[in-house]
Amino acid sequence: MTDKPRYNLTELLACVAAGLLENGRSAFVGTGFPILAAMLAQRTHAPGLLIIFEAGGIGPQVPALPISVGDSRTYYKASAASSMHEVMSASQAGYVDYGFLGGAAMDCYGNVNTTVIGEWEHPKVRLPGSGGANDVGSLTWRTIYVMRKQSPQTFVKKLDFLTTPGYLTGPGAREAAGLPAGSGPYRVITQLGVYGFDEATKRLMLLAVHPGVSVDEVQAASEFEILIPERVAVSPEPTDEQLRILREIDPQGLVIGK
Amino acid sequence: MKDPIENLGELIGWHDPDENRRWIRENKTRAMVDKRTTAAEAIRRFVPDGSLLAMGGFGHIRIPMALVYEIIRQRKRNLTMFGKTAVHDIDLLIGGGCVSRVEVAYAFGHELRGLSPCGRRAVESGQVQVTGEISNAGYQWRFLAAAMGVPFMPVRTMLGTDTLKHSSAKVIEDPWSGKPIALLPACYPDVALFHVHRCDMYGNAQIDGITVEDFELARAARRLVLTTEEIIPHEEIQRQPWRTVIPFYLVDAVIEVPFGAHPTEMPTVYYFDEEHIAHWLEASKTPEGTQKYFEEYVFGVPDFDAYLEKIGGKRRMEELKRIMALQPPSTEEAAL
User: Fold this and answer.
1) How many other CB atoms are found less than 10 A from the CB of residue B325?
2) How many CB pairs under 8 A join A and B?
3) Fewer CB in 10 Å around end: N or C, chain A?
4) ∠ at Cα B110 (B108, B111), nearest 5°?
């Protein structure tokens, strides 16, 4: 009989993501994984993390995992139940530090597609579109991506459609397009590791691999070349305390899994 | 200044601001008149075939489902819908053959619940045409421009992306900072349909919880139809006039429909009916299943009350109220 692993991938990724969120900062979060990570951060090192939902919830004490970004639980015991205009304007004005996003495919500059696979005019697969993702990727200071299925099909040389801006075509391109100066993608978390962006080229760069993952595996799971620095860290394993809190947040295993 | 950069998306819902002012002067009454009517009459009158349609609420939140079912029942055709995160509503309206065009911020998906089989089938086969792309904030600011009576809103979102390229926005150089800025054209839907918590018979309406885009959309749409959990006396509105999100002169019709957002969430009142939403997602996997769903829940029932009986009646709604209130299931229900 094999022992049940101490943690699963979602729990590992949630702990890694939570670790990126600082106390006293603000973050746009979506439902599912991002809220799980944000709630974990709030209940560990970042009790003063300001959680904001794109539909208008500001600073809630989320009682249970919300199903939608407009779910009433996104403004439970909140400072404000406002509007999209309120929070998107706040973000455009510079109040939102972090934004959490997912994506179907990403290129080496952190640009993301969630609109269409194939040609826009004749889609092979029609995806939901931007939703608020483009706004989060355009208007928050730092965007964090979580992509659970890194592969040469999702880390691609050329996107079928650029839904949400990363660094566009490289250094200075966001500012040249008119996007807020000094904003852009900050971290990308996948099932294999954690990435940042090289300051000089704005290209995706490996920062850490998860326990048991090799650098070769990381490169093999990408169509474009990933910058590999000399020193690559290893993501810390979740602590028992973190795992206990995660299961407290998601007792039914809606996001963590059963 | 350089010439504006044009984009590829079709411009829908725009009017010259003077033309819209004239339209409002001639068509919107300033009189406090009793606007109570039925869902059937409101849809007949205010949603003609070919309308540009927007829904209040957001995703699965506070969607005027009684009106959605009525549009399907009346077999409206060739509607263009604003996909301002349109989820359950647009999925059903596409399945019902009512919507043929959509401008997309978010559509064809059900957030965490997955992609929508019905909407995707329609768009991938060409039955439904996408007129252009936009973002959620983009929509909200198109409505804000219309609500303000100005032709466009300058914004810093969408720049540099294909979302912008496939939108109806233009890019100019900001005359002050010299930086590129996106101009989003005002958007005036022909008609918007809302479900609110309470209003009086004139349409003065209160919404509990987040308003999402409804403040702006209510003021942007030419026609506004409200269903409401309850109609309250005008004196109740006057007692706390600061709670009025939508003043009466914006409103064209009022229909009292308790539980009118089912199976979507009515903030503070009842939660999503996940079982029913899952039932639709399963049924809509095939065209036959979709039709069967409509036979049972739309064409097979004369009105929304009969529909409510079908989905479990008062007892089911009480259960959804308990979930909203974060209470455990009732003992009676748990014993079943």
Assistant:
1) 11
2) 197
3) N
4) 115
List the single residue in A75, A115, A134 with the smallest CB-CB distance to B209.
Answer: A75
3-state secondary structure B83-142: ECCECHHHHHHHHCCCEEEEEECCCCECHHHCECHHHHHHHHHCCCEEEEECCHHHHHHH
* A13 in a structural domain: yes
Active site residue A237: no
Active-site residue, selected from the candidate residues A54, A119, A199, A241:
A54
Number of domains in chain A: 1
Query: What letters, b where the CB count within 10 A reaches 16 and e where it falls short, cover A168-196?
Result: beebebbbebbbbeebbbbbbbbbbbbbb
CB B256 within 8 A of CB B231: yes
Using alpha carbons, list the distances in angstroms from residue A254 to A31, B107, B113, B114, B131: 11, 23, 11, 14, 36
Q: What are B237-267's pLDDT values in tens digits?
A: 999 999 999 999 999 999 999 999 999 999 9
Q: In chain B, which residues have their Cβ closer than 8 Å to the Cβ of A112?
A: none
Give Cα separations from B86 to B13, B238, B278 (angstroms): 17, 34, 17
**Average pLDDT along chain A:** 95
CATH number of the domain to which A179 belongs: 3.40.1080.10
Q: What is the DSSP letter of B271?
A: -
How sure is the predictor about B334, in pLDDT bands with cuts at 50, 70 and 90? very low
Chain A residues lying within 8 Å of B85, measured CB to CB: 131-132
Query: A197 lies in a domain?
Result: no
CA angle, A114 as apex, A110 and A118 as ends, to 5°?
105
B23-156+183-335 folds as Glutaconate Coenzyme A-transferase (3.40.1080)
pLDDT of residue B332: 53
Query: In the predicted model, is pLDDT for residue A136 greater than 60?
Result: yes
Average pLDDT across chain B, whole number: 95
* Sequence spans of domains, chain B: 23-156+183-335
> Which of A85, A92, A174 lies at the smallest CB-CB distance from B160?
A174
Name residue A227's beta-bridge partners: A205
Whose structure tokens read 């940042």?
A196
Residues of B in contact with A162 (CB under 8 A): 160-163
The verdict on residue A27 lying in a domain is yes
How far separated are the first and last CA of chain B, in Å rounded? 72
| Candidate from B59, B144, B213 with C-beta closest to A69 | B59
Domain of A179, in residue numbers: 9-191+237-249
Cα separation, A34 vs A16, in Å, equals 11
pLDDT of residue B333 exceeding 60: no
pLDDT of residue B336: 43
